[in-house]
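On to our target:
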Amino acid sequence: MSTSHQSGIHWAAVALGAGAGYVLQLAAGLLVGSSQSPLAFTFSGFIGLLVGGFVSARLAGRQELLHGTLAAVPFIMISEFIRLSGEMELARAVPEAVPKINMVGLAMGDLVLLAGAAAGGWLAGLMATERKEP
């Protein structure tokens, strides 16, 4: 009989994976260039979440794809909250300077981030399978 901890989601691993993703996004962002560019943000986030998803999956030790993908959820939520908070401040100061939200671009960027985290979890699962084989 398995306990809920063994079959459920390891939330600490998800949080640590998201945290690792943030640290690596900052590092990759410095290498790529300005964090103001949506493309640079998405690329550095993809790299960060590739590693963050891998970390999450390895720490969880089970359901690697799920744990890797879940690392992207707090990452995306917090990133968007920070971005929107900045835009709200800009809107208060100069209302006409705030750009319209590009929902297609936002959704595509989030899908890229989710794909990076899922790929990291998938890679961790592949490595775990190779270790188990005789």
